[in-house]
Amino acid sequence: MDTIASLFSFITTPVSWVIVQFHTVYGAIFGPDTGWAWGLSIVSLVILIRICLIPLFVKQIKATRAMQTLQPEMKKIQERYKNDKQRQSEEMMKLYKESGTNPLSSCLPILAQSPFFFALYHVLNGIASGETIGVINESLLESARKAHIFGAPLAAKFKDSADTIHSLGASVTDVRVVTVVMIVLMSASQFYTQRQLMTKNVDTTVKTPFMQQQKMLMYVFPIMFAVFGINFPVGVLVYWLTTNVWTMGQQMYVIHNNPTPGSKAQAAYLERLTKHVTHHGKVRRRSEKTIVKAIVTKGRDRNEFERKFINALNKAGLAAQSDGTVVKSTTQAAAQTEDGATGATATATAARRQQPKRQSKAQRQTGGPRQAGDSPSLEKSDTPDDAKPAAAQQPQKPGSGTRSKAQSGQRKGGPQRPKSPSKK
User: Residue 175 and residue 153: Cα distance in Å, rounded?
Assistant: First the structure.
């Protein structure tokens, strides 16, 4: 470990200087020798580092999304050149170059944070050994050795002997209870962070080896933290627990506001966005405009959740624009009447007005007054009975008028069918 620490010795002095500056502030509030002053100094160091790493975190999100998009193409390359590893690697690199992605981009925050982690470990290890390091002088070293967090010294480890722990002014029970609780919280936060990524923010429409890899890491990382945690000083456990909690909260924010397309988180987000847009009639936040713009740009390549979102806006009389804004649909606005009724309502109203009123049975039998809009074919003839032809006035035999000529074997028009000769 000394070799690894020496590699990051160039950052040991800046890290120790930042801790001392925060300790000066918190020491004036809680006392310079208290665990609150030194513990909050470590937490503040984590927050400062993670704020500086936010641009890298944004790049990590974009790289992860790009890698998820390329998974189907990568799978095809693997199947096509499964017997030629060199050609497979060449095609993979070509795909990365054409798409502008880098597999290592998703590891940038971890790689950038590693020097600070090892530098902090080296500083706390020096405190445990009674050695000054960086800008930590003898007085600060003595103050840090007296600092306890819930009864455990900052420099104590789970595997330290009883003599070492007693020299730091603590008991073995207190140190091991505090370290076990911190290791459990650290592993649990890491597991939950990876689990919410797998269950909520992964495209469920694409089944690729990338998903299996992420599922494996969900169980591997907590085990790694549990194994290595027993060798970390309490101060490093505070640092790593704070880092995991920050990562968990940061990821929850991203999943809630910028989910992966095709994931369950996107379905929930678009449902909330639909209610918001249909209620207010517009998109207010810039992040929402960015997502609406991306959905409109996709066109026919939209997934199921995005199509539902567009259809819901159309039903509400709204239309999403290419710039991410939402306006009233032009077809529906043009069909609005002066009293505010929509075109569909006005058309239905006009159709009801033009439809003739249906006559009752008594009116049809007695030849009652004809309503406006009645069909002329339903009217009774105005010609008097005495003006009708005589053939029409002659009474017909019962049943003779109702039988058609077709029933008697004769056609109504054209050449007649010859009768078959009668059989004797």
Answer: 7
